[in-house]
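Researcher: Going back to the complex we discussed earlier. I've cleaned up the inputs and rechecked each line, so this should be the final set. Can you rerun the prediction on the complete assembly and write out the structure?
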Amino acid sequence: MDLKNKHFVIIATLLLAQSCKESVPKLRNIEGQRIQINYAATPKDSVENVIAPYRNRINEVLDSVLAYAPKAISKTEGTLNSPAGNLMADIVMQEVNPVFAARTGKQIDFVLLNFGSIRSVISQGDITERTAYEVMPFENSIVIAELDGKAIRAMVSFLTKSSVAHPISGIQIIVDKNKSLQAVNIQGKPFDENRTYYVATSDYLITGGDKMDFLKEYLTLTDSDYLIRNTLIDYFKKIDTLSAVTDDRFLQIN
Amino acid sequence: MERRKFISGTAASAAFIGIGGLSMNSCQNSGKKHITILHTNDVHSHIDPFPNNHSAYPNLGGLARRATLVDQIRKENPNTLLFDAGDIFQGTPYFNFYGGELEFKLMSMLKYDAATIGNHDFDNGLNGLYAQLPYASFDFLSANYDFTNTLMDSHVQPYKIYMVDGIKIGVFGLGIELAGLVSKKLYQETVYLDPIEIAQDVSRTLKDEEKCDLIICLSHLGYQYQNPQKPDDLKLAARTENIDLIIGGHTHTFLDRPTIVNNRKNKQILVNQVGCFGINLGRIDFYFDEGKQNGADGVSIKV
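Model: Rerun complete. Updated structure for the full complex:
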C-alpha cells in the first residue's frame, strides 16, 4: 500500500475522532419512576438458593414457642407508664441484677430505658425468640451507672418533662396535676440526695443516645455484657404466661 | 407502573431505530445515550418479603424479586447503575445472626455499584462493618465521614467515577451526624464533616476537574427537617450546584415520584427516596444527545 495514502487514512481518522470528542454529551430528558417490588416479580432462583440455608437456620432457632401472651402488650397503652415499658424494665431488673451482684456485691437500685427502644408491640399468642427480636432488634446491652443525687434529680426532671413514658423499674415518681414533683421513692424508700444509686440502663443511652445527658455524669460504670434482647429471651424461657399492666410507678395525683 | 414502563420501553426502542438509520455516521451515532440509575435505601436487612398478613406491607419487598427486576431492567438497558443510600444493616434476625454477611453477599450478586454508609451500618461497630467487607464487591462512598483514624480507612472513598457508554458519572456519598444518634464506641474516631460544605466542594471537583457529565449524590441525611440548622436532602439540593440527582435515605420517606428542586443556580434537579425495607426500587432514566442538535439548554423532566 502506498505510504502517503496510509498516512492520509490515519490522519483523517484522527480528525474524525477529534471532532467527535468535541461534542460533549448533553443531558436532554430525565424520567423517574417508583417500581413496587411485589408478587409480580418471580424470585430469582440463584438468589433464593443463597438465602435458603440462612433462613432455615434462623427459623429453627426463632420459632420454638417459649411462652404465651393472653393479651397484646403495648407501649402506647397508658400515659406515664405502659405495659410494655414496665415489662421490659422489670425484666432487666430481674435478669441483670444477679449478674451485677455477682460481679460487684452490690444491687441495682433502679432501671431506666428509653421509650424508643421498644420497637414492636407484643401480639397476643405464642411468644418465641422472634418476639424478642421484634421488640428489641438492636444489639444494645445493659450497663450499670453509679449516679449521684444531683444526676438523679436531673433524671427525674427529664422524665417528668418527657412527652413519652420511658420504661422504669425500682423507682416511683409521683407528680401533681401540674406535673410538679411530689415524691420520688427508690426501692421503696424516699430518694436521698446525699447518696449514690446504681442505675441499670442501655449502652445506647449512656453514650449520649436520646439526649439523656445526666447519664454522662456517672461516677462508675459496670458493663453487664448482657444484651437487652437476651434478657427478654431468658425471661420468656422461665415463664409460661406473659402479661403486663400499667401501675403506679409513675403516678399523677390530683 | 406497568403502563409507564411500557411507555419508556417504547421510547427507548424508538431511539434505537433512530440511531440505526444513521449508523453510517459514527459521530452522530455516538451522541444518543441512555443511562438508567436504579436505587434502594434503608433496606434494613429485609431480605424476605413481608408476610401476607402484615398490616402495612403485605407480601411486598424481597431481595430475590428485586434481583429479577434488576435483571429485567439491565437487559432492557445494559447502561444501568445500581446504588444504595445506606442503612443496609439492622432490622431482621438476618443481621442479628450473621452481622450483615448475607446482605453484602446478595447486594454483590445483584451487582450493586456502590452504597453510602447509614447510621445503622455502624450498629456492630466499625469492627462489625469491617468484618463484612470481604462479602461486598461494590464500593462504599462517603465524602463527609473521615475514617482516617479508623480501620475503615482506605475502604471508603469520597467519590467514584463510573464510565458508562461514554458518559462520565460522578457519584459521591454523604452521611448523617453520628453524635447523639450512634454510640461513640461504635463509630469511634470517625469524624463527621459538614455535608453541605463537602457536597459543594466534591460536586465542584466532579464537574470542573473530573468533567463528569452526570453527578449523583447518595445521601443518608434524610429528606426534610423543620429545623433550619439540620441538613437534609432538600436543603442540600437548594444550596449546591452541579448535582443532577440526590438519592436519599434515613427518613424512610415514600416519595410517589422524585421531587424537583431548584438548586442555587436555579437549575432543576431531582431528589428521590423510595421508602424503606426493599419495598420499592427507584428508577431514574437520563437521556443524552451530542449537544449540537439545537441551541436550547433545557432539560425536560418527566416524573
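Model: Worth noting: Chain A touches chain B through 48 residues (CB under 8 Å).
Researcher: Good, that matches what I expected from the previous run.
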